[in-house]
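thought: user wants a sequence for this fold. calling inverse folding tool.
action: design(structure=
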C-alpha cells in the first residue's frame, strides 16, 4: 500500500509554494464534474506515457487520487518508472470534501478562473454579440481577431474574423489593424482567451480601442447570429519595425509582472538544480518550432500555454523558462504566468545550437474514450449547455475567494 497524504497537507504544500503534482487519474469526463483547483488530469491508461513528460523530475512529490483502487494502481505504475515520492490522497475526493475544500468543475479550471479575476479587477472592456454584429453590418472600422488555435478558428469563426492566436496578438494585431482609429475586437469560443487577449493588448499600450466579444462564439450563437466555417485568414507578416515595437511593449509588461530574463549560463544552472522541477517551453507557432528550436524545449504556443497550463505544467511550484527567438511572445506569455503565481523566466539568448523537427518527447494525442466534450467546441452545442457553461464561469471569482489557495495577482 502507498503512503497517504491528507487534503490539508496538499493544500499546505500549495499555499506555501512547495512543489506538488496533484494528479487525478480518472477519465477527463469524470474529472470535469469536480476536482481541486490545482489538480491535473492524467487518465490511468495514459499515466506511463504522459508522466515522464508532464512530471519530468522523478523526485517531485506526486499525490494521486481516483475512484476505487485507481490511485493505488497509478502509484505502482509511477514507482515502476522510478518516481520516488508517490503518495495517494487520503480518502480521495471524499477526504477533500470532508476538509471543507472547494471542488471546481470543467477543465483548465484555474486558468479560466484567473481570466475571470482579470476581468473583475481590470474591468476589461467588452461588447455584446449584438453590438459587434451591428458594427459589422455598418461596415464600421473594426478588426475582429480570433485568439484561439487556428484549427478552432477554421472550424467556426465570427464573420470577418482573422486568426491571431493569443500570444501572437501583441506582435501581430498592429499589422491587422495598422490604423490607431480601428477598434480591435478579440474573440475566443467563450470568455478566457478573449479576456486575456484583450487585456494583453491594453497592457501593452496599443493606441487602438480594444474590446472583447462578450462570451465569444457561444455568445454569438446564443444571440442567433450565424458563424462562418472553413475560414483561413491569418495575420500578415510583421515588419522589423513593428516586431521591435511589439518586443519593447511586451518587455515592459513582463517587467511590471516581475518576470526575470536569463542567459544560457543561468538556464544551465536552473537545469542542473536537482531539487526543483524545470519546464522549458518554446512559445512560437508549431511551424516555427519545427523549423528549428533549442534542444530540450517543448513547443507550447503561448496563448494555449496560459489556457492549458495545468496540462503543460502539472507540478505546481515548479520553475518555467520560455523562449521565442527574441520576439514579444515569450514576454507576454510570461507576464500572465507570473500573475498566476508561477516562478517564470524568459531566455534571452541567440539560439545557434538548434535542432529541426518535433521534440522527441512530444505526447501522442489522446483518443475519444472518456473525453469531456466542451460546450464551446464544434458547432452542435445546445443553448442550454452553453448558458450553463457561461453561468459557471461567472461564478468562478467567488469560488476562488472561497477556496483561498491561488495566490494570483493582476497587474
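)
observation: tool returned 411 residues.
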Amino acid at each position: 500500500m502507498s503512503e497517504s497524504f491528507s487534503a490539508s497537507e496538499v493544500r499546505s504544500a500549495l499555499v506555501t509554494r512547495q512543489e506538488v503534482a496533484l494528479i487525478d487519474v480518472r477519465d477527463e469526463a469524470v474529472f470535469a464534474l469536480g476536482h481541486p483547483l490545482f489538480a491535473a488530469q492524467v487518465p490511468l491508461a495514459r499515466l506511463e506515457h504522459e508522466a515522464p513528460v508532464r512530471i519530468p523530475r522523478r523526485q517531485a512529490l506526486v499525490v494521486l487520487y481516483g475512484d476505487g483502487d485507481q490511485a493505488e494502481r497509478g502509484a505502482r505504475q509511477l514507482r515502476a518508472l522510478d518516481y520516488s515520492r508517490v503518495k495517494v490522497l487520503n480518502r480521495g475526493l471524499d477526504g477533500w470534501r470532508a476538509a471543507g475544500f472547494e471542488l471546481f468543475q470543467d477543465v483548465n479550471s484555474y486558468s479560466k478562473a484567473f481570466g475571470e479575476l482579470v476581468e473583475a479587477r481590470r474591468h476589461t472592456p467588452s461588447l455584446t454579440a449584438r453590438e459587434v454584429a451591428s458594427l459589422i453590418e455598418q461596415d464600421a472600422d473594426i478588426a475582429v481577431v480570433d485568439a484561439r488555435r487556428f484549427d478552432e478558428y477554421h472550424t467556426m469563426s465570427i464573420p470577418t474574423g482573422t486568426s491571431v492566436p493569443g500570444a501572437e496578438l501583441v506582435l501581430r494585431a498592429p499589422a491587422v489593424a495598422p490604423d490607431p482609429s480601428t477598434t480591435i475586437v478579440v474573440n475566443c469560443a467563450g470568455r478566457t482567451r478573449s479576456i486575456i487577449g484583450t487585456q494583453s493588448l491594453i497592457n501593452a499600450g496599443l493606441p487602438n480601442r480594444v474590446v472583447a466579444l462578450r462570451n465569444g462564439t457561444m455568445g454569438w450563437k446564443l444571440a442567433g447570429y450565424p458563424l462562418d466555417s472553413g475560414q483561413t485568414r491569418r495575420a500578415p507578416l510583421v515588419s522589423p519595425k513593428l516586431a521591435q515595437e511589439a518586443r519593447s511593449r511586451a518587455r515592459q509588461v513582463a517587467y511590471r509582472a516581475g518576470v526575470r530574463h536569463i542567459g544560457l549560463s543561468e538556464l544551465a544552472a536552473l537545469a542542473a538544480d536537482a531539487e526543483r522541477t524545470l519546464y522549458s517551453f518554446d512559445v512560437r507557432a508549431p511551424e516555427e518550432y519545427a523549423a528549428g528550436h533549442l534542444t530540450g524545449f517543448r513547443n507550447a504556443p503561448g496563448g494555449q500555454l496560459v489556457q492549458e497550463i495545468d496540462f503543460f505544467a502539472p507540478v505546481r511550484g515548479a520553475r518555467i523558462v520560455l523562449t521565442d527567438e527574441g520576439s514579444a511572445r515569450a514576454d507576454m506569455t510570461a507576464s500572465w504566468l507570473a500573475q498566476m503565481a508561477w516562478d517564470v523566466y524568459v531566455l534571452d539568448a541567440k539560439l545557434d545550437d538548434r535542432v529541426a523537427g518535433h521534440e522527441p518527447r512530444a505526447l501522442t494525442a489522446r483518443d475519444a474514450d472518456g473525453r469531456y466534450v466542451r460546450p464551446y467546441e464544434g458547432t452542435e452545442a445546445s443553448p442550454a449547455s452553453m448558458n450553463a457553461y457561461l453561468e459557471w464561469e461567472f461564478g468562478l471569482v467567488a469560488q476562488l475567494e472561497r477556496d483561498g489557495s491561488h495566490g494570483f495577482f493582476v497587474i
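thought: summarizing for user.
answer: Here is the designed sequence. Residues 240-256 form the longest helix (17 residues).
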